[in-house]
Specification:
By secondary structure, the protein is of the alpha+beta class. It contains 4 helices and 7 strands. The protein has helices spanning 23-37, 45-51, 61-76, 110-122, and strands at residues 7-11, 14-19, 56-58, 92-95, 98-101, 129-133, 136-140. A 4-stranded antiparallel β-sheet has the order 1-2-6-7, covered by helices on one side. It has a 3-stranded antiparallel β-sheet with strand order 3-5-4, with helices on one face. Helix 1 (23-37) runs antiparallel to helix 4 (110-122). The two termini are 21 Å apart.
Length: 152
């Protein structure tokens, strides 16, 4: 892959670099995740969950999947990676699609969501290539990764 074959655009509030795929297809995948999990879109499911006064509520399958991954990562890192604002990840429980959380707890799934979105986006590539979104990188096939200007 040459530098010329890399396409660049913005999505999820980040710079995106793509090689080996269709920018419109990848942008659509990233937009689907952004629409569901943005903290900055009042209509996103994450914003609606965070505004809800309910202690227990049903969430979409995609939301449940992302939250499950986020809680697993929080447990594996002993809270170093935290899907809540304020280190309260142990006050979140998920049973299927039912979310239970302490009063006033705010979720922030963006770190995990971006990596899941990039993983899905790389699956749309029709051959070897990569998708890079704001530091999250997924590759398909052999790809050489190097620092710009030879690491200088």
């Amino acid at each position: 892959m040459t530098t010329e074959s890399v396409r660049r655009f913005r999505a999820m509030g980040c710079d995106v670099a793509l090689a080996g795929g269709d920018p419109a297809t990848v942008a659509a995948v990233l937009e689907r995740w952004e629409a569901r999990f943005s903290l900055f879109r009042p209509e996103s499911e994450l914003s609606l969950v965070n505004r809800s006064p309910a202690h227990v509520l049903a969430v979409s399958p995609l939301f449940a999947r992302a939250l499950e991954v986020a809680l697993d990562v929080a447990a594996e890192t002993e809270g170093l990676v935290d899907p809540t604002l304020g280190g309260r990840w142990t006050q979140v429980a998920l049973c299927g699609r039912w979310l239970s959380r302490a009063p006033g707890l705010t979720l922030d799934l963006n770190g995990v969501v971006k990596s899941l979105a990039v993983d899905e986006a790389v699956g749309t590539l029709d051959g070897p290539g990569f998708v890079s979104v704001g530091g999250d990188l997924a590759v398909r096939g052999p790809v050489d990764v190097a620092l710009p200007a030879g690491g200088a």
